[in-house]
Amino acid sequence: MLEHEQVVIRTGRRSRLPVIVAVHSTALGPAAGGLRLWHYRDWRDGLDDALRLSSAMTSKFAVAGLPSGGGKTVVALPQGTKPDAARHRDVLHDVADVIASLGGAYATGPDVGTGPDDMAVIGEITPHVFCRPAHQGGSGDSSPHTAQGAFAALRAVSRRLYGTPSLAGRTVAVAGLGRVGAALARLLAAEGAALTVTDIDPDKRTIGEELGAVWAAPEKILGADVDIVVPAALGSVLDRQTVADLRCRAVVGPANNQLATPEAAELLHERGIVWVPDYVASAGGVIHAVSVELHRLTADEARARVDAIERTVDDLLDTARSRGQSPAQAAGELARRRLGAASGPAGRPVAQRPPAQEQHA
Ligand code: PHE
Description:
With 361 residues, the protein is α/β, with parallel strands linked by helices. It has helices at residues 43-64, 85-101, 116-122, 143-162, 179-191, 205-210, 240-245, 264-270, 278-281, 284-293, 299-307, 309-323, 327-341; strands at residues 6-11, 18-25, 31-40, 69-78, 106-110, 171-175, 194-198, 214-215, 228-231, 250-251, 274-275. It has two domains: 6-54 and 70-130, 3-Layer(aba) Sandwich (Rossmann fold), CATH 3.40.50.10860; 143-283 and 314-335, NAD(P)-binding Rossmann-like Domain (Rossmann fold, 3-Layer(aba) Sandwich), CATH 3.40.50. The chain is 42% helix and 16% strand. The strands form two sheets. Strands 8-7-6-9-10-11 form a six-stranded parallel beta sheet, sandwiched between helices. Strands 1-2-4-3-5 form a five-stranded mixed beta sheet, sandwiched between helices. Helix 4 crosses helix 10 (284-293) and helix 10 (284-293) runs antiparallel to helix 11 (299-307). It is globular, with a radius of gyration of 19 Å. The relative contact order is 0.13. The protein binds phenylalanine. The site of phenylalanine has 14 residues, from strand 3, strand 5 and helix 10.
């Protein structure tokens, strides 16, 4: 059964590339979610990604307690290609056309492969776009805020496991040093954590050196002998095998869609490893963007909302423990409760859904 309100798949008139916009739910408010420009073997894999990522955005806003819905855009680039600058603009304008046609049901933002300058290009055609550069009226790069939110989640996990929110002296493995991963690694290093890091791009080694981090091979990072593993790259990293190989006490990070298979959350729980659902730990960027651009909060107020992820995770871990559930179950129930309390478009009740972690693996 399709649980999404609408999914638009269109061949871009300029770029001839498949543009996929998935609006999962507007039950809590107009949908928001980033534009992912990434390579896929088949555009249908991009469709799968859009479906799962947009569903995760619905949960992200619901758990964060914000009146927005979930959506996502994927432009599926053929394997081994990279659009040149002119074509890149064409892609962005093609995306903007689809968003404009949705009449405000969905607004986009940055995600893997896109940033504030791209949002400015989309803004040439439609106002439904977050995170344009500040001088163009947007809230700018969301990645430092996503990193700050993940850091808040890490503090809550640290309090639960070690009795102190401070990460000083903790051993932490950061998988992925993109814009978010690098910012988070810097926050952790500044706090005094001992880092192991990696990235598929060997040039990122310089960031590791700068932070005094140990460099690990990408395929070794999840199994690193550390206190906490932080997924900060692409998703689908947690499956039966990788969960069995973990040596840490917690997995918490800003990557979206960390579970490769739905049951991985329960396998983690059975192993006594704390996993904070990705849609909780990665919410800082969108929280900041909608707080500043839609709710007109000041920078300090928005920052306080991002920092409140620490409290949200504290509460989730408490609830999960008192009910004997995994944090994923507790978060899924919270999201469903908030979505169930709202009604869908035109008063349609929101369909009851199975726990979120069983869907956007
Ligand atoms: N990439 C962000 C996320 O996955 C999406 C986003 C950021 C959307 C900022 C809007 C504004 O949460």
